[in-house]
Design goal:
Length: 266
Amino acid sequence: MLKKLFGRKNQSNKDNESENFSDLLKNIDSENMPRHVAIIMDGNGRWANGRGLIRSAGHTAGVKALKRALNAAIDFKLEALTVYAFSTENWKRPTAEVDFLLKLFSDYLEKELNEMDQKNVHIDFIGRVDGFSPGLQAQMDDARKRTENNTGVRFTVAVNYGGQDEVVRVAQALAREVKMGSCQPEDIDAKLFESHLDTKGLPAVDLLIRTSGDMRLSNFLIWQSAYAEFWFTDTNWPDFTKEDLAEAIVDFSKRDRRFGGLSNQK
Ligand code: FPP
């Protein structure tokens, strides 16, 4: 509906629309803004295919879209942005594509860290980071340490991440604590469980965005998205703009979130 309101014909219109949506955001009551936005950045391959390019070109364009999304998150003063960059299942892809993605990730950190730091971004990583090369792990450690005192958006990159894997790791950690006697089975509740998740300290996901038309969670933040609002778009990730993020947020701000209770509006 909002798309119709603002028209969506070409790129120059898009710039105006972006301003319109940004203006709209200023009018949204801060209580209706999502604190934590999570994005499944899907469709890099389809974007490339549609242009007769190889898949890696789609991933390279995907990095540019990621930069745009982070800058938009900063402009919109989001508290947290979490993106799905590499899943535990992505190892099934051809070695050349996996290698390309990991190199892209490493280059991204090398090129963008200074700017992110200057923009007060607090960067972190979730997933089995120990599955990566020592060099890449050192880069992630460096990025984490350099930005840990930054007070701006908390930008979390999920790498070698799977939601079920994360939940299993928490179960194992709690089982170890019970075995050692430092906690009892009946002490385990949602709060204790959450304090063992990779995302500890982050608010729950309010708004979950997935690009490229598929409507599934794909093992992303399965615990944290228990009450998330979902927003899907047919746009492939490399074409995702600040305006798209604004549109998702405006849509979110109109949802009636009941968390299993009754509506506030009735
Ligand atoms: C999904 O597209 C995207 C990925 C599996 C990787 C996401 C990676 C990026 C956006 C760029 C790299 C990120 C960083 C942090 C450097 P797909 O390949 O599954 O697309 P398809 O479904 O159209 O084939």
